[in-house]
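Ops channel
N.P.: pipeline sanity check, posting one input/output pair.
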């Protein structure tokens, strides 16, 4: 553990930020799963709003520095491909 007071503070801040980042990433994963479930049930209106929510969460995470822009783009692209595949069946 750090000995200097400012270093101890930074440890606390880093942990708080880590918890926030984990929560944001978890919310994205949950939203993706929800969108895929709706796609399997062929609920087109629900899928549209769920995919929109995933896009919004990904874009917010990029803005806050939680996700890299390419990671967010990849997640959105893979979700769109998966949803289209499930709805086409």
């Amino acid at each position: 553990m750090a000995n200097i007071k400012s270093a101890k503070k930074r440890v606390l801040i880093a942990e708080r930020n880590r918890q926030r980042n984990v929560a944001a990433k978890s919310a994205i994963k949950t939203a993706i799963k929800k969108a895929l479930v709706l796609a399997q049930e062929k609920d087109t209106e629900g899928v549209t709003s769920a995919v929109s929510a995933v896009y919004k969460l990904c874009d917010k995470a990029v803005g806050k520095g939680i996700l890299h822009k390419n990671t967010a783009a990849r997640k959105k692209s893979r979700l769109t491909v998966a949803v289209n595949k499930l709805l086409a069946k």
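N.P.: looks fine end to end. Residues 5-88 form a domain with the Methane Monooxygenase Hydroxylase; Chain G, domain 1 fold (CATH 1.20.58.110).
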